[in-house]
Amino acid sequence: MTQLSSSTSRVFAAPETLDSEDTLDPPPETFDESDSDTFQMAPKQKIRIKLRSYWVPLIKDSCKQIMDAARTTNAKTMGPVPLLTKKRIYCVLKSPHVHKDARFHFEIRTHQRLIDILYPTAQTIDSLMQLDLPAGVDVEVKL
After folding, report:
1. Structural domain tally of the chain?
2. N or C: fewer beta carbons within 10 Å in the chain?
3. DSSP letter string over 68-90?
4. Could you tell me the pTM of the whole model?
5. Along the chain (143 residues), what's the average pLDDT of each consecutive run of 10 residues?
6. Residue 91, domain member (yes or no)
7. Range of the domain at 132
8. Burial, 38: exposed, middle or buried (Cβ in 10 Å; 0-12, 13-18, 19+)?
């Protein structure tokens, strides 16, 4: 087993001062948003619509209605983005008294979609308010 002396091992050595040739680079200049065409700011106004339903055809129809209403008013839209489907499973005993091994399993799947409407106008909001969405769709709107 070889033992390294403290002069050859730099692992535990004290930090040394920088030589003139080992100087650090100056920090980069700050990014100026006005000079770059590629810099895009986040929209100041945005409507976020979250749809929930147990039936996929209902949620697809509702998304199509919302997208059509927003596009007719020249609002920029993003979506529909499919979010995770929540699955709730209920276990029910078949027998009223004994036979614990015999069970029914029921599940409810909640499908979710997300739609963002960027730069909405008053016409966009009016057209969204006049929509008649199906009863099986839960709509949550955030500004």
Report:
1. 1
2. N
3. HHHHHTT-EEEEEEE-PPEEEEE
4. 0.65
5. 50 48 51 49 81 97 96 92 97 90 95 95 93 95 91
6. yes
7. 43-142
8. exposed
